[in-house]
Amino acid sequence: MTAPSSFPRPRISLRHLLPWPWAVASSRKVAPPAVPVKEENEAADSRSWMPPPFKIGDVRAAIPSHCWIKNPWRSLSYVLRDAVIVAALALAAARLDSWAFWPVYWIAQGTMFWAIFVLGHDCGHGSFSNSVWLNNLVGHLLHSSILVPYHGWRISHKTHHQNHGNVDKDESWHPLTEKVYRGMDSTSRKMRFTAPFPLFAFPVYLWWRSPGKEGSHFLPSSSLFHPNEKQDVIVSTVCWSAMVLLLLYLAWVFGPLPMLKLYGVPNLVFIMWLDLVTYLHHHGHGQKLPWYRGKEWSYLRGGLTTVDRDYGWINNIHHDIGTHVIHHLFPQIPHYNLVEATRAAKPVLGSYYREPEKSWPLPCHLFATLLRSLRVDHFVSDEGDVVFYQTDPQLQGAGHHKSN
What is this structure's pTM? Predict the structure, then answer.
């Protein structure tokens, strides 16, 4: 095994903010001091990057067989529940049309858009039902309604699951390498690592992917897709475009401001939910989590570096997506069985499972976790088969804080 290595002094220039294409010009380079190896490793849990003493088959065997059963009627009942709540909230907001209610509506409806996304996410994994056509039909209806290209996202998300924890092959929220980090100017760095900007990254990711990668979730010619997937991508892009045209028509009929209040702001809240949840399921643990390269990476080891989160009252609303470790290892399990499956697997996982911090009714504690992670999780070395996030001390005063 290759142990975590020391890191050369990072230099910073102008490239790669999120995937924003207008952040690629060059500028004067600044060289912050090197991060000591001791500081890099002091918060790392040595057990977290050692090969586990169990196999993925051992974890699978611990999960009750009924947890794998997909009930399409139960899945559809969640779709109906969420659709009714979305419609009721929209009707209430349109009827009241009160600035005392609009902020409540935006948060509630944006959260429901996020819940709808999670159900479409089940469709993409095939955990919604055993029927491919039903999964695709419901997935398109749900994801298109919130401006997500279903197949384009489904395929890239599959790549993420198949390569999670792999520095070179992971697809979403993977770390910047030192080489990429050197290509960022101060403005780009601050935008990428300063809230709330990372919470609006998802639409940019859909159009341009992540720094260091090329392609679009909307174009069948993108390097994201194999030739036999191009037809699926075209269908999803057409469905997405139809939703855009519908929104433009409604804005023409009812006016841009009512549509902004009824749909636009909730959609921004949904995007914030998506970026917050997906980021924190892969960052911000009390001990540093490893990222792998080469032979050190395996599907099991990558999946074990995911983090479960407790969202309080939101757990049920967004379909227990906080049970992320078991979801990553076995995405075929329906969301309504993930809690039981996690409980059954924990004795096998042992210390490789990290208990989530208990939430209050609302998961306000996660914002502090997000801010702390953005302050210290900046890049990883270009070398080494087991690496951890390293901190740039000159970015946002990060040198005054220990890495988490």
Answer: 0.86
